[in-house]
Amino acid sequence: MPISEDVLVVGGGLAGATTALAAAETGASVRLVTYKKSTMRFASGLIDILGYTPDGEGPISNPYDALASLPEAHPYSVVGEEAIREAFGLFDEVAGDSYLGGHTDANALLPTHGGTVKPTARYPKSAANGLASDGRDALLVGFESLTDLDAPLAADHMAAAGVPFSVRGVTLEFPVELRADAKVTRFAKALDADENRARRRLADAVEPHLDGAERVGFPALLGDEHGEEVRADLSATLGVDVFEVPMGPPSLAGLRLEDRFFAALDEAGVRISSGNPVVDFETDETGDRIEAVFVDRKGQRVPYHAGQFVLATGGLVGKGIDSSRERVEEPIFDCHVPHPGDRYEWSDADAFGDHAFARFGVVPDEELRPTGSDDDVEFENLRAAGGVVGGADFAAEKSGSGISLATGLVAGRNAGTEASQ
């Protein structure tokens, strides 16, 4: 029996998951097709709307106040403020009480593992005591066997950034002996299970270094299933508040968020096909509508049919946009990706300059359908969401998560509504 749904979403990151949830809310049957593991696990877990303007001004206090100044081609300008707010409402439902920040439109300022301070709209509850706007003195703790957080260096960077508190860093041995290449989840599970009284031994190792610190920041590994319990035990033993410092990939905070989104997808009845890439597609006789995509299963091309399709495969980093020495392309549907003909114009000589490649992506219409070089819609029943949509330098703006959420909501809702008619 052929595989067929009302809506088929290609891509399993934050944009793809949001798209699938939004489409399912319309009553449409939805399938999410993803090749590799979700990119959520590689993200810090911080969810931003807009931290800096495209001109580099910031950090922005209220991202909604800055929306009107964005270029017309920016994804936020395409979807509008109401969609952004609704998308963050959806996020708040999925994240539940594990995330904070929904009580205000203002950005929070969170320290990262590199010692920078990042403006963000939503942040894990586990990081709340680490807010850079908090004036309490802090101690950062890193571990010899985990190089992801160089606590003394991060503390120096935070002090140089002018945070309104005293901050120091110390590197200690983790209280449980692990392999030299142990994953961050192994550290978390050791604290979850309290192996060899790991929590008490960790607190005892930290206590001599407090020296007046009123809060202590650890790498984001303070438990997985029992994180709140781990933090409460450490805080009670140390007599100060503790917090997690958002980390780089692989990120335990990202894994936790991925679990919540995929649980929500399961609850919404979304079917998930993973581990096999989409390699081709088929249109109707007119070439205006997509009828199916082909998924490679061990060399066999299996057709997946749908009434509506959404492309949420990511940008250049996620390979949703690909490039060669000659051109930039969208590899599945060959959608138009505008770019300078001279590849030397794709980037700027200054490492922190205005790089054209950072904004490469498909150009959507008001319904998020990719358009061609003639501005006509490429396919009537194809939409795009997330990093594959061009027009924003999300890394510089600190807008990637918000763009994924907002475009995912609009693309999924439009696709689901259209499929149900």
Automatic annotation (TrEMBL):
Statement: the UniProt record of this protein carries the keyword Oxidoreductase: yes
Top-level taxon of origin: Archaea
Residue ranges occupied by any FAD-dependent oxidoreductase 2 FAD-binding domain in the UniProt entry: 6-403
A family per Pfam: FAD_binding_2
GO CC, any one term: glycerol-3-phosphate dehydrogenase (FAD) complex
Gene Ontology molecular function, alphabetical: glycerol-3-phosphate dehydrogenase (quinone) activity
Keyword terms of this UniProt record: Flavoprotein, FMN, Oxidoreductase
NAD recorded as keyword: no
SUPFAM superfamilies linked to this entry: FAD/NAD(P)-binding domain
Protein name as annotated: Glycerol-3-phosphate dehydrogenase subunit B
